[in-house]
Write a structure and sequence with these properties.
single chain, 215 residues, alpha/beta, 4 helices, LytR/CpsA/Psr regulator C-terminal domain-containing protein, membrane, transmembrane, transmembrane helix
Amino acid sequence: MRVSNYDYPEDEFDVGDDDGPVPVGVHRAQAPRWRSWVPLLAIIIIVPALAWGAVTLFLNGSGSGSSDAASSAQPAQSGQANNQASGGKSAEASKPADDKSADASAKPSASASASASGNVDFNTGVTVSNGTETSGLAKGAGDKLTNGGFTTVEVTPGIYENAEPAKSTVYFSAPENRAAAEEVGKKLGITNVVESAENAQSNPIVVILRDDYKA
């Protein structure tokens, strides 16, 4: 196509396709079709790769945190188990001592009774005989001794027929029974306390009551 009444001479830009080469300067060659797919391909490949990398990084971080928490909890649990075990051993070790002390405090022993009244063994056997015509005198004396702490008191029935002793007497069979015999004399108001294995045969301590005894 030519322009009519064109006052300027023709140059290379006025040449058509039929007259010569394609004009230059104001036209561009058509871009290849594959170039339009490059951005789309980049999005399809790169975006999933970035997402996969982010997920992997997150999972690795979470896994390390859980393992750290588990490792820190394990020593604490083992320490707690050790404390419980040591506490159980300590309780078991102290238990026998506690049981012994409880048994010692619960059971009145002869040594405890002795310490309460000058080494007096209140478990020492005592026999009380009535050498008078007063009925029930020996039983009353036996009740005094029982109420006074002696645990083994026997009252002889009937009347003591021997002539000796002439006055109320507390006999004891051996030196280790002296403290208990003197305690019996104090509780009954008898001052005549004599060591005599011959007269103290039924029990380590034998009491003979005479008319001088005051009930």
